[in-house]
Amino acid sequence: MPSLTVENYVKTIYQLCAAETARTATTGKLAAMLSVSPGTVTSMLKTLRDSGLVSYAPYEGVQLTSAGENLALRVLRRHRLIELFLSQTLGLAWDEVHEEAEHMEHAVSDRLIDRIDDFLGHPPVDPHGDPIPRADGTLATFSHRSLAECPVGFRFKLTRVVDQSPEFLRYLSETNLHLGTEGEVTSNRAEAGIVTVRVGAATATIGRQAAEKILVEPRK
């Protein structure tokens, strides 16, 4: 069974490549994401390469092999289903579930995760809108756009949050922006770096950098 460290590395490589639509992840970004030194990352990447989980060459970045991607999706499946289970059954807030899932994802079996998946009704996304890998390793696809890209008058439904730090999620909660929230863009001033939205009877002004981390789809 892969170690906690191996699982964390392949998961992080997968997320970096997915977030930047890049084929490879750099050593520097891996070190920053994992809070370790670049030298530690380099040593671990050689181990992962020898295990057949990554393709790696110095100064060229790293990418997952098919075996590495399969492992990363298994870890993400565990993590995201645990997050949803904690949210729906124990009532944990969306800014609390990530850290708890980080601790639990390496300790539960795939059999238990499948039971949780059945219990929850095979949900497509976690509490932050991230797609949950299916048991066969496939992912549902969604059409999102960032709130920062939406023109005035665009009616939206909030479907995913890219920044899942507790501080950012609490900020969104305070602004009444939750997964599933519907609203309308009333102002989008790129020169001022702000986006204003109306949610129900309330309005909220959001910095453009924050709006780029909020993904939405047209309201039906």
What's the number of helices? 8
Say how many strands there are.
Answer: 8
**Percent of residues in beta strands:** 15-25%
Q: List SSEs in N-to-C order.
A: HHHEEHHHEEHEEEHE
Distance between the termini: 45 Å
The secondary-structure class comes to alpha+beta
Average residue pLDDT = 93
Give a description of the structure.
With 220 residues, the protein is of the alpha+beta class. A six-stranded antiparallel beta sheet has the order 3-8-4-5-6-7. The mean pLDDT is 93.
Core attributes:
globular, 220 residues, 18% strand, alpha+beta, six-stranded antiparallel β-sheet, two-stranded antiparallel sheet
Q: How are the SSEs ordered, and which strands pair?
A:
Elements: H1 4-19, H2 27-34, H3 38-50, E1 54-56, E2 62-64, H4 66-90, H5 97-104, H6 110-120, E3 145-146, E4 155-161, H7 166-174, E5 182-189, E6 194-199, E7 202-207, H8 208-211, E8 214-218
Summarize the structure in short.
This protein is an alpha+beta fold and 220 residues long. The protein contains 8 helices and 8 strands, in the order H-H-H-E-E-H-H-H-E-E-H-E-E-E-H-E. Helices cover 43% and strands 18% of the residues.
